[in-house]
Amino acid sequence: MAAQSTLRHADDPISILLKHYVDRIRAGLMTTSRTARLLAAVVLTLGIISSSYGSYKWYTKRRKEKETGRRLLRRNSGLRGKDGSRTLFVPYKHSTARVTIYPTKPTTFDAHRRLFLQPPRAAGLSDSSYPQVPPPQTRPGLNLAFLHQFLSLLNIMVPRWSSKETGLLFSHSIFLLLRTYLSLVVARLDGEIVRDLVGGKGRAFIWGIAKWLAIGGFASYTNAMIKFLQSKISIAFRTRLTRYIHDLYLSDKLTYYKLTNLDGGVGNQADQFITQDLTLFCDAAASLYSSLGKPMVDLVVFNYQLYRSLGPLALSGLLANYFATATLLRRLSPPFGKLKAVEGKREGEFRALHARLIANAEEVAFYGGDAMEKVELDKGFRELKGWMEEIYRLKIRYNMLEDFILKYSWSAFGYLITALPVFLPAWSGQGDSDDGATPTPSPATTTTGVSEANIEHNTHSSTRMRSFITNKRLMLSLADAGSRIMYSLKDLSELAGHTSRVYTLISTLHRVHASAYYLPPSQIAPYSPSDIQGTLHLGFGGVRLENVPVVAPSLFPSSGEELIPHLTFLLRPGDHLLITGPNGAGKSAVARLLAGLWPVYRGLVSRPRRVGAGDDGIMFLPQRPYLPQGTLRDQVIYPATAADVSAAGRADAEVQECLEAAKLGYLVDREGGWDTRKEWKDVLSGGEKQRVGLARLFFASPRWAVLDEATSAVSGDVEGGLFEGCKERGITLITLSTRASLKRHHTHLLTLGLGPHGDEWDFQRIGTEQEKQSVETELQELRDRLKMVETWRRRREEIERELDRVWVGAGDVLEPPDYVNGAGMGEGERDRRAEVQGAEDGDERDVAP
Ligand SMILES: Nc1ncnc2c1ncn2[C@@H]1O[C@H](COP(=O)(O)OP(=O)(O)OP(=O)(O)O)[C@@H](O)[C@H]1O
Prior knowledge:
By secondary structure, this protein is α/β, with parallel strands linked by helices. It contains 28 helices and 16 strands. The strands form four sheets. The protein has a seven-stranded mixed sheet, sandwiched between helices. Strands 4-8-5-6 form a four-stranded mixed sheet, with helices on one face. This is ATP-binding cassette long-chain fatty acid transporter pxa1. Keywords: ATP-binding, Nucleotide-binding.
């Protein structure tokens, strides 16, 4: 009414409203005192000034942040927070966006270990006598194990009630409820529109269409939001899980190394688990919420509505129908969970083959091994394809049954139910309502039989028509909801497969992280991960091994192979050690023990505390130099980051100095500056790569360094200078090499691979009496061998002379001895010998002078 009245005015209603308020303010100002007006003016001015200042401050801060972001992005760097958080800047549109990553607290890992390593017995995930044994992969499917696994993962995905994910799930639920409500409204409106159309009520019909369009617009927005929130939830889950996994995987416990080399729980497919399986799991989990949550709500609401309009009989029929079909489908459905889990594994194997080829492309190209690699790749793909085809074949039968039940048998059932009020009004919910009381012809005949004389009859018919349409739509929605639930059963089984993969990954990571290899004593194999009794002592001023067996480990739960039974030596700062011995003697194994890669099964290993720079640091340069992604600067400062270096106040000049010390000073100009990014492993030569390793060592300047053939590709003229450079910087060297020429740069020598079985060793100071003695003994041994060779040569000449005299003497053929004539031989053999002898004699005769 108000709208109609304003329309009668000639003036614009907005300007009238504005005028009204201006007049009111003006009247108010007239009545206020001068002081109050002054005060108000001052407050207003101050407000304007402070808000302008605030905006200016905000703007300059934002600009500074953007500049910092651009600079750090260029330098491949970030910021470190006091709480251990890292702030990274990532490219976003034309600028940068700030991302802060908080590390997972160790207490969270401790709390979760119970979920992943000690699942409840009821879940059937563990050995009943030793529940702490990490769960073997149970058959993935809809069972208690799946429930436990999913809830455990949910603990990571939604860590708190106050977390962002809860908010997202809540908003998603609101939109899902809204959509259900809108479906109800649409069902009712549908009935009304048809009723008005049949009743010939033009105005009401048009108004109905208008409402339909308005609701349609709102419903489309709701649907779009549901999809958007579903994707947001999936990404949020993935972010939580990925960060959690990365914190476990890249911990100081070297989980990333031990996972493949010692545990083997996920084979060498950790990458496949973290990228592919995790994504599939998060997508499936997020979509399940809407694909299962919405139809569930629909089912309750629509069933209630149908109960009201169709009565208890219809509802019991509906429920019985659900139950029967769900049971049937569950019985006949193939094990989708298990199939999905195996599919993931096969995908991983195929991907690993490709990753391997990319990593070794140069070697394969040199050998021309493409044909062989192709065979392997084709084989891998054939296996994957076979598996996928098997799954699709299994799905045909199931999909057929599913479609028939959910689409056709359910609609037929729906018609039967909606017909209840028509044929059995007394049984339906409308039994005593007046519009259902009249025995009627079918709705179709009613619509054609509208006449002036039978208004009451028509009213009843159109009401019945409306309720039929509404019920039919409700039935359709219900059938849709029911079928979506049934379809989701399949999705749920597939989710069980993905859940099992992700759960297996996280529990294996926890097992490696906590070294939780508990087995009953009778099942512990010697030198297996369950049999680690030695100690790795960090924070020692030198390097010491005491009665340590050097054992090449094996995957859990097998035994490792003993290379050296007991190794003992002690080095103090300044004791430069050369470890030498034949290939495979266990030189690198000693480095792996010191670095903590291989377990100390027995005895004691002591070493400086940190791996890396500093006075309490020990740095390892491996045989194959590793070049990380990033700038040229990153190659030299690795494993430190640009953030660490700038926090320590170290400049590029220092990095340049280290490059020069490694005889690589030309690199910065050649490659176009410190911020150049390239695929460095392809750009640098073998020797250059090793020298970058040395430059890294100079930059870090640790107290100790272990060089594992780290200069094998460096030219001889440079190598000596590099060793001396290390020593000048106060670095004590432990060099692993087969080249005895490096002895002159060291003070101690450890020789491995001695003795008949190659498991003995010798440790001594270079240049001592004992060492001279041992070199002397070695030389004497060589001289003796040489003498033996001389003796044998002389003896051979004597024998040859003797033979000459025996067989051919001054041109006459002599009688051969008896044994040559074959005394004591068989008849046949004697004849053959005689024949051969005859032939030889003939030859002799021909050539004899
Ligand atoms: N990750 C591993 N798992 C199990 N065994 C290993 C592993 N790495 C090496 N081995 C085995 O340990 C033994 C010692 O290897 P190591 O690399 O220490 O030899 P090395 O003396 O350094 O030889 P080279 O001079 O060829 O480098 C070898 O027999 C090798 O097969």
